[in-house]
Amino acid sequence: MKTRLLSSIRRFAREDRGAVLVEFALVMPFMILVFALSIEAARMLWSYQSAITGVREASRYVARSVPGNICSTGGSLNAMSAQLKTMVERSIDGEILFPSAVTVNTVVPGLTCVNGNYRSGTVSIATVTANVTIDFPLRGILDMFGGGLGGVTTDIADQARIFGQ
Prior knowledge:
A hairpin with a 2-residue loop joins strand 1 (about 100-120) and strand 2 (about 120-135). About 50% of the residues lie in helices and about 25% in strands. By secondary structure, it is an alpha+beta fold. This is TadE/TadG family type IV pilus assembly protein. Keywords: Membrane, Transmembrane, Transmembrane helix. Pfam families: TadE. InterPro entries: TadE-like_dom (IPR012495).
């Protein structure tokens, strides 16, 4: 009986038919994690780059549509917030630039007047700042590994010198 048991154990120890399946089962969760992280990183970079482009275009728009002497006349850019938010969120054709998990919370224009010995006297500079939240759709997969990532909220800003109409 003892020899029979020993021979069964030796035969089992030499057998390697299921080794590949066991190795795959051990490695598969890490492969899923790397895949999910790659997808989320690519989405986040794409969304962030789209938001940067929108903010840059909005600041260029402000630089060309506001009068060049806004500092001396005492004007404000606050009335343009809704229009600038639309410019950041949408393309020229009106299509939404971001996936549904990206939210543009606020877009705030600002005005800075720089005094100096310039040809035109005071130089006016427009600043457009957008607050953007990027959520992660594959959050469930990342939570299995203890990720707990809810999303990223960041401010994106760009400045442009106001040249006027």
